[in-house]
Specification:
Peptide Deformylase; alpha+beta; 42% strand; 3 helices; five-stranded antiparallel sheet; 23% helix
Length: 136
Amino acid sequence: MIRPVMKDVFFLAHPSEEATREDAPVIRDLTDTLLHHREGCVGMAANMIGVRKRIICVMMGPMPVTMINPVIVEKSGEYQTEEGCLSLTGTRPCRRFRDITVSYLDASFLPRRQKYSGWIAQSIQHEIDHCSGVII
């Protein structure tokens, strides 16, 4: 189900809770909402659809990839950039890393550990920040 995009900064500024198998319906809604907005959005976190759970979904080419309880375990190549967000107007400066390794559960709740770089790494960092209540 496509959900409305949360724009309440107070709500977005609160850290999300760990997700469990009981949160599986949120994954479908998050994916549906991201696909609906994919022309202007490359990733979403569950709090962007009003659910404070540590679930993100990021477009990797034509495919949305879900990460449950993602944690960046390695990072390198720090740089400064500017980002926008579907939940907020305008852009803001932020610090990112060119290369990251993320530990997470996939949509089947199986453990994964994967390296990402470039634009996808930046998108994942943005969504993980959302899970932590960091306003970009």
